[in-house]
Amino acid sequence: MITRLVFLVLCCISPIALAGSTPVKIERAWMQAVPPVAEATAAYMKITNLGPTLLQLVGASSSVATKIEPMITTRTERNGQQIMGMEGVEHLEIPPGGVLELKPGGNHLMVMGLVSHPKEGEHVKFSVRFAPGDQQIDIDVPVLQQEPK
Amino acid sequence: MKETVSEPKSQNASVASSRANGRRIFITAAALGVALLISLLVTRYFAYRDIQTNFYGQALVPAKEAFDFHLVDQDGKAFQLRQLRGKAVVFSFGFTHCPNVCPTTLSDLAKVYRALPANDQKLVQVLFVSVDPQRDTPAMLKSYVPYFNDSFIGLTGTQEQIAEAAKAYGAFYEFVPDSTGNPGSYTVNHSAITYLISPDGKWKLLYDLDQLKDSKKIIQDIERVLAGA
Questions:
Q1: CA angle at residue B182 from B181 to B184, to 5 degrees?
Q2: Helix, strand, or coil here: B227?
Q3: What is the CA radius of gyration of chain A?
Q4: Chain A partners of B144 at a C-beta cutoff of 8 Å?
Q5: How would residue B4 be classed by pLDDT, with cut points 50, 70 and 90?
Q6: Is the pLDDT score of B13 beyond 60?
Q7: Tens of pLDDT along B159-210?
Q8: CA distance B229 to B226
Q9: pTM exceeds cut of 0.90
Q10: Which residues are bridge partners to A136 per DSSP?
Q11: Which of A90, B91, B104, B105 has CA atoms 20 to 30 A from the CA of B190?
């Protein structure tokens, strides 16, 4: 029972990154596994702003890619079918106490210029950058084929 | 006398009335018959509608003849949809430089495929049709598409062949320059729809990206289509 409880608590804590200075919580981070020929992929996560002021997600850096930038996904309709597009943005906003969900088919961090192609089950390091100022949070990002449940 | 005269009259009257009765019975029976036929047709129609619309995916009622596209497969060989008669075909349009929608679609379809019973796997073919032939050569597709599942096939073609296939399925795509301004660097806005074709070559269903998350319901649709629904 106790080991089970400890396990549960560990499960809850491990994916959460709490930075000393930036009042941000990052959960459920993962990067889509793609084949070695792919030049780009996407990373997803849930970011909670725990502070009293607006935060902006401006991007991330990692040794796996040359550029990691926020993108929004646009959805429009034509012939009754949904058209999805992608637009780079300067930043994505997280209001005080608010949550930013980066999800497949939605807003995401586009990982461009992949220099290595980590396989499913491997982990990569991301430094997620926020404004105002130059706030960085280092997180561990598992590489997965599917969105974790 | 009056009575004798009146008798045949009354006989005439009774003959006339029995004729009228007969006609009335006939009309009633005919009306009943027609009503029965109509109700039968209506119930049959609703049963048919039910079968056609009780899918998880969005059903085309009636199902359309699937356009027989002529493309090139990941080995550089000519490829026609017709080659896959006898199999349910699941396909979508995309491009390999796509970071979000396309890997999500292919990973979701890989999950569906893996969860199919082995017997059904043999009867299902997943295709990925690139709308970006400039960057997606057959060799590129061969290293990209089967990564998600060995059995998946990547297709490409000339701009015209691809445009014709996309048009037939109501798919849309447009090339959009990205922020770098480099002509070789662009993104593609495209419809993120997955199509399901029955083994007899009918375009039955379509799914949007969000629907692909529920593999169980898609598998139910595939199994019903394989069973001839």
A1: 135
A2: coil
A3: 16
A4: 35, 37-38
A5: very low
A6: no
A7: 999 999 999 999 999 998 877 777 778 889 898 999 999 999 999 999 999 9
A8: 7
A9: no
A10: A129
A11: A90
pLDDT for A125: 97
What is the pLDDT averaged over residues A127-133? 94
Question: Is the pLDDT assigned to residue A12 strictly greater than 90?
Answer: no
Q: Are residues B21 and B29 in contact, defined by beta-carbon separation less than 8 angstroms?
A: no
Residue A46 burial class via C-beta count within 10 angstroms: exposed 0-12, middle 13-18, buried 19 and up? middle
Give one word for B162, left, alpha or beta, with left for phi > 0 and alpha for psi -120 to 50. Answer: alpha
The 3-class secondary structure across B154-183, one letter per residue, is: EEECCHHHHHHHHHHCCCCEEEEECCCCCC
Amino acid sitting at position B193 = I
Across the interface, whether the CB atoms of A32 and B176 are under 8 A apart is answered no
Locus of tokens 């090139």: B72
Instruction: Name the residue among A128, A58, A130, A66 with its Cα closest to residue A88.
Output: A58
- Distance, in Å, from the CA atom of A127 to the CA atom of A138, rounded to the nearest integer, reads 4
Structure letter (DSSP) for residue A52: S
pLDDT band at B16 (very low <50, low <70, confident <90, very high): low
> B14-39 burial by CB neighbour count: b if 16+ within 10 A, else e?
eeeeeeeeeeeeeeeeeeeeeeeeee
For A96, residues 6+ apart whose C-beta sits below 8 A from its C-beta are: A49, A51, A52, A53, A54
Ramachandran bin of A51, using left for φ above 0, alpha for ψ from -120 to 50, beta for the remaining angles: beta
What is this model's ipTM? Answer: 0.79
| A39, A73, A84: residue with CB nearest B97 | A39
Residues of chain B contacting residue A73, judged by C-beta atoms under 8 Å apart: 100-101
Q: What are the pLDDT digits (tens) for B73-96? A: 999 999 999 999 999 999 999 999
Cα separations in angstroms, B111 against B58, B91, B126, B217, B229? 20, 14, 12, 12, 23
Rounded to whole angstroms, how far apart are CA atoms A96 and A100?
A: 11
